[in-house]
Amino acid sequence: MLPMDWRAPTTSALGRLADRRVRQFWDKEHTMAQRMAHDARPPQPEQSCCERSGFLWDLAAVYPAGERWDSQVPPAAIFDGPVVQVAPKIDAVLTSGAPAR
Fold this sequence. Notes:
By secondary structure, the chain is an alpha+beta fold. The chain has a domain at about 30-95. About 25% of the residues lie in helices and about 10% in strands. It has helices at about 10-15, 30-40, 85-95; strands spanning about 50, 55, 60, 80. The strands form two sheets. The chain has a two-stranded antiparallel ribbon. The chain has a two-stranded antiparallel ribbon with strand order 3-4. A hairpin with a 2-residue loop joins strand 1 (about 50) and strand 2. The protein is globular. It starts with 10 loop residues before the first helix and ends in a 5-residue tail after the last helix.
């Protein structure tokens, strides 16, 4: 955890991911992180890291185009981190348009 992770990200931090398909959220109460962990199921890959104090942390999730978020979060194509380590895989999936499971 970094000291800056205890507050909402700045505009410059949000600007690092300028792709229009990217959505970034400040999840102060860990609501989305808890839901993503609760709804995880195959064919979503199991994450190899990224839990701190029982919460998902520094994790990237990429969902196939057209997936609907209804009563459950859909299985992700990429669900791992730390973000800096999975960035090449994310780039490859977004560039090719192919799902990566």
